[in-house]
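Task: sequence design from structure.
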């Protein structure tokens, strides 16, 4: 048996290049992070070889003595990391990632064509919360369920709770979803709970982006108000790529969430759990209970505030005016440029972030904003000072983009810059997460 370099130098070389890219760039994608060597070791271990359909003690395969031990440990650590009472909350650690976790919840508590309300994607929500355009039901969630998104009050960049309340009263959803991919503020959980109760809906929080901040108690606690909480494990939580679903143990609206959710995960939508991921997750969740983790999450928020402060000083418009969490959303439209071009220009300078739609955007393909996150570079040891410098670097990139847009033809450089400002340049478009 050979190591990777010997067995497959081609893949090894690609991994080496990616490693170098990660090492050299300023990683500012709000949903990314650098997980620890210990987590990577577990993920790269023999745990990947084992089939273990079912739950601990109730498997469809033999040889699961140690896998059971691992999954029980992971569940215990998950509940402890989020300060949950084992008698009141349960958790399923098998979801393969965030989108499957969400769909598993919908499968558990909804019937096909039941009504749901989540934050609209152009206003910061996630695809899996029911995104659709006027022409197309884009996400599976909107294909199998009837989705009526709620939105931000565009004048202040905050969730329009009054409108949500009015719409929910008419639409009468069975599920209301809190949580977002590009929202720089906390959700008002007490208000969302009140709205859900008034219409008899389940309340779910998808804390994928902020789960590390929740574990460290540096943002509001969704568990106090929600019936179900889903998350990815690889963003601010800094674990391996995966997902988790937390559920109340007492029945909610007559539904036994524990059995409904466990059954939706397996056999409903998944087969064998990814035990290597569960191993890595257990490692991550142990670390998430440490004082260092809390200090890290405090630094994530503090760095993000420093970044926001400097951007405002430089004259930028931030959606909602600032940030309470790990990300800022910059509205570039007042400068006459879009997020797609700025993303490309910064990429060339090894500054990695993503274009993002901002409230009021006309085009999702060429959105008017950029999203900047602090978790990854905080893991790399950056503090407020470096994040202030990052704001200055981004400012330079924006200036170059503005100049590029104004140039006509001429020298090679000018031709390049003209290309950068042409629609062809945007062909490599991708949906941000
Ligand atoms: N939920 C939210 C709020 C997200 O931001 C994301 C991804 O970025 C997901 C779910 C989906 O996670 P995954 O990409 O692991 O399916």
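Answer:
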């Amino acid at each position: 048996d050979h190591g990777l370099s010997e067995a497959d130098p081609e893949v090894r070389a690609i991994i080496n290049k990616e490693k170098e890219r990660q090492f050299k760039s300023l990683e500012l994608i709000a949903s990314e992070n650098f997980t620890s060597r210990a987590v990577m070791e577990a993920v790269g271990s023999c745990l990947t070889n084992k089939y273990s359909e079912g739950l601990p003690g109730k498997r469809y395969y033999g040889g699961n003595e140690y896998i059971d031990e691992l999954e029980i440990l992971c569940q215990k650590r998950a509940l402890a990391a989020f300060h949950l009472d084992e008698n009141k909350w349960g958790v399923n650690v098998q979801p393969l990632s965030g989108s499957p976790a969400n769909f598993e919840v919908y499968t558990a508590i909804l019937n096909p064509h039941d009504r749901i309300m989540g934050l609209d994607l152009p206003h910061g929500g996630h695809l899996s919360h029911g995104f659709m355009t006027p022409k197309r039901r884009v996400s599976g969630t909107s294909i199998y369920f009837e989705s009526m998104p709620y939105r931000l009050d565009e004048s202040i960049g905050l969730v329009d709770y009054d409108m949500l309340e009015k719409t929910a009263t008419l639409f009468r959803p069975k599920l209301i979803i809190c949580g977002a991919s590009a929202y720089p503020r906390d959700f008002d959980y007490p208000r969302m709970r009140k709205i859900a109760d008034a219409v008899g809906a389940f309340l779910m929080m998808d804390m994928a982006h902020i789960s590390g901040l929740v574990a460290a108690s540096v943002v509001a606690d969704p568990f106090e108000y929600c019936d179900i909480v889903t998350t990815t494990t690889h963003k601010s939580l800094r674990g391996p790529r995966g997902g988790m679903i937390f559920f109340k143990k007492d029945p909610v609206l007559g539904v036994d969430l524990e059995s409904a959710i466990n059954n939706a995960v397996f056999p409903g939508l998944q087969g064998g759990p990814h035990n290597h991921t569960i191993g890595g997750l257990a490692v991550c969740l142990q670390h998430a209970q440490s004082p260092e983790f809390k200090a890290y999450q405090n630094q994530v928020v503090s760095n993000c505030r420093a970044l926001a402060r400097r951007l405002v000083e430089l004259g930028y418009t931030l959606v909602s005016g600032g940030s309470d969490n790990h990300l800022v959303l910059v509205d570039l439209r007042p400068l006459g440029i879009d997020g797609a071009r700025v993303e490309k220009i910064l990429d060339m300078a090894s500054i990695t972030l993503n274009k993002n739609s901002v409230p009021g955007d006309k085009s999702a393909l060429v959105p008017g904003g950029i999203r900047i996150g602090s978790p990854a570079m905080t893991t790399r040891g950056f503090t407020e000072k470096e994040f202030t410098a990052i704001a200055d670097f981004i400012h330079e990139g924006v200036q170059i983009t503005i100049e590029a847009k104004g140039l006509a033809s001429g020298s090679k450089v000018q031709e390049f810059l003209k290309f950068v400002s042409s629609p062809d340049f945007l062909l490599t478009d991708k949906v941000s997460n």
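The chain has a mean pLDDT of 93.
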